Amino acid sequence: MKKLDVKFKVLLIIFTILMVAFSQLTAAVAQNNGKQKPISIYASAFKHIPGLEKSEKNIIKSVVKALNLREKKAKYHRGTIDVIDMDGDREGDFLIVALLKKDSYGMDIVRITVSDNYRFRSIEKNYVLKYGDSSTDWLPATRACDCPDETVEILLSTCETGIPTAVAGIEYSYDVAVAAGYTAKKLLGSEENTVEIDNWLCCPNLKYWGRIGHGYTGGIVVADGNLTSAYFDSLPAGALSGKSLY
Q: Residue 176: which of 23, 30, 7 has the closest Cα?
């Protein structure tokens, strides 16, 4: 019983560290407001659309131009582009662009409807996500489970390596977990992507996934896409049993 109490306290400490790091991260972003920082746009890496990698550069250029992201004082730190194929023709029907604000650490969501060859048709700003607006919403209900390492008990991650306090929060939490005797793994930057998270969540011995993200309520925005509630609903029965996600 005492051993369980100790483990619970360690998890509580890690959770507290993540919350403190998040508050520091919010302050750091606010302080950086107004400084000239490059906008980094990461196109979706989903491979369910053949040839998507050939169109990525053009998609990025079009989004940057349409949303005026080349401005030196742009209010966004970075963005992700998710290409959605709804009709099954293996070509994108619309784009969901998630933009991380510099000043408030919030997210702006933009929906861009496209035609053949990703020509822009219309742009809807201040968009509210719904089912089907993320590539992960369309993953098959049953899929292969490929745990990278069954010994790992704690997963810690952030895709925001451009913000020092985000990395510091993950690194510190990792050190605390290892010192407490847990087997831990950290995912930084592009390592925190949809495929990696999908694989790690199926690990039988994983007890805890803690991350520093965006504070966005419409989903978890990782390096290459958005994990919505529909994604978690699509996981196999019992996939999250015994796991804590913060």
A: 7
| pLDDT at site 33 | 45
pLDDT in tens, 83-120: 888 776 667 788 899 888 877 767 889 999 988 878 88
Contact criterion met (CB below 8 Å) for 136 and 230: yes
Pairing state of beta strands 154-158 and 208-211?
parallel
Give pTM, 2 decimals.
0.71
DSSP string, the chain: -HHHHHHHHHHHHHHHHHHHHHHHHHHHHHHHTTS----EEEE----SSTTHHHHHHHHHHHHHHHTTTT-TT-SEEEEEEEEE--SSSSS-SEEEEEEEESSS--EEEEEEEE-GGG-EEEEE-S----TTSSGGGGS-SS-----S-TT--EEEEES-TTSHHHHHHHHHHHHHHHHTT--EEEEEGGGS-HHHHHHHTT-TT--EEEE-----TT-EEETTEEE-HHHHHHSPTTTTTT-EE-
Tell me how many degrees the CA angle 183-21-8 measures, rounded to the nearest 5. 45
What per-residue confidence (pLDDT) applies to 32? 47
